[in-house]
Amino acid sequence: MSSGPADSPVEFGSCIRWEPLESDTSRLASLYRSAAPYPHIALPNFLEVGVAEKLAADFPPPMGEAWINYRHLNEHKFGQTKRALFPDSIGAVVDELNSPRFVDWLSRLTGIEGLLADTTLEGGGMHQTPAGGFLNVHADFTMHHHRPTWRRRCNLIVYLNPEWRDEWGGAIELWDEGMKRAVVQVPPLLNQAVIFETTDTTYHGYPDPIRCPQGSTRKSIALYYYTDEPAGSAPPRATNYRARPTDSFGRRLAIWADTSAVAAYSVIKRRLGLSDEFASRILSRLAGKTSANDRRPADRPHDE
Predict the structure, then answer these.
(1) pLDDT in tens, 90-137
(2) 93: Cβ–Cβ under 8 A, 6 or more apart, which residues?
(3) CA-CA distance, 85 to 130, in Å (whole number)?
(4) What whole-number distance in Å separates Cα of residue 155 and Cα of residue 163?
(5) How far from the centroid of its chain's Cα atoms is residue 292's Cα?
(6) Which residue from 94, 111, 223, 279 has the least number of CB within 10 angstroms?
């Protein structure tokens, strides 16, 4: 693997700490499947020693048109899905997480047969959230936007934030089905991976604006895995944002309206084969004075 942009490259072959995963699959699977509020697991020290630090050092700032600014009422964050533009180190990790070996292990962990990796990284890839950014609680879109029979089954997020402080917030919250409370909170610590099931009711997010210093961001890489289902067996549903019990009536109404707009965009995206990057460019041009890093494509679904 080439060194990428970091000044002090870490040379390594496999990026994942395979031994503790594969030797302990049965126990980890039991923890995953019995977890509340829905199947999930947090795995510290997920990557090999030195790899996570290199990824954090290589992580590029959200500059240029390849970075999509997901900014609307329900979220404020950046995403980059173009694998060819990733730093070498991050690309190598993404490739290994999409490898047959990892997908087979993930299938054994989750109990989901026939898992498929999405090499297009639809909605995934590199994510980062600036100070003041957030992602409201939501359940993920259920079907791949460009593969109509692919049903989304689980998410993997690897956090890349050295020295992240609790007071900055940014922990991913896993909420119960009734949206009464956050049952689990997992901070976005360096080299911690979170894997969780995706269904109509696996609500999650980090809805409070993060309080990291200006110029810093909450960084992660995200991959989503699917199964190929018979056509029509699982109707597509867009990202479903939900209000929290403490939200006012006005905010609840605004969240509902924004969610409806996201659903409308998802239908158009699926039928016309649009990409989020394409929508971002079009809306930027319509905005005229909007800069490349302050795009506001209001109705594009995104997840963590």
Answers:
(1) 999 999 999 999 999 999 999 999 999 999 999 999 999 999 999 999
(2) 15, 16, 47, 51, 55, 158, 221
(3) 21
(4) 24
(5) 22
(6) 111
Domains and CATH numbers, the chain: 18-287 (2.60.120.620)
Residues 6 or more apart in contact with residue 12 via CB below 8 angstroms:
1, 48, 50, 51
For tokens 């690309």, the residue is: 91
- Residue 281 identity (one-letter amino acid): R
- Which 3 state secondary structure label does DSSP give 7? coil
Tokens representing 215?
A: 């110029």
Cα–Cα distances in Å, from 296 out to 258, 291, 293? 13, 10, 9
- The C-alpha R_g of the chain, in whole angstroms, comes to 18
Are the C-beta atoms of 263 and 235 separated by less than 8 Å?
A: no
**What 3-state DSSP class applies to 29?**
helix
